[in-house]
Amino acid sequence: MPAFSSLGLFSTWFYNKAMGYTDKLKINTDKCVGCGICAKNCPAHNLKLTEGKAAAGSQCTMCYRCVNNCPKQAITLLGKEVVRQATI
Ligand code: SF4
Ligand code: SF4
Questions:
Q1: pLDDT score of 42 more than 90
Q2: What is the value of pTM for the model shown?
Q3: By residue range, what is the domain housing residue 50?
C-alpha cells in the first residue's frame, strides 16, 4: 500500500498548497469591467460577479485560466501584475 499512502500524502500536500495560493488570488477591481469571462471559465466555480465586479471564493486550483483570459489583466495569482498571458 505504499503507493496509495504516497498518493494520499501528495493529495494532502497539494490541497494545502492550493489553499495557500487561493489566498494569493487578487482581483484588481479598478481594472475589472465585469465581463464575466473569468467566472464562466473557472473550472472550480471559484469566481462570481458581485455588484458588477469579479469576486473570488476559496477553492482556487491555480489553473490560471482566469489570469490568462481576463481581457483587462485584472487577475493575478503570484506577483502584483500580469506580465504575460498564455492561451492553450
Ligand atoms: S475576466 Fe477580468 S474584467 Fe472580466 S469579470 Fe473577470 S476579472 Fe473582471
Ligand atoms: S486560477 Fe483557475 S481555479 Fe483559480 S480562480 Fe482562476 S480560473 Fe478559477
A1: yes
A2: 0.77
A3: 2-76
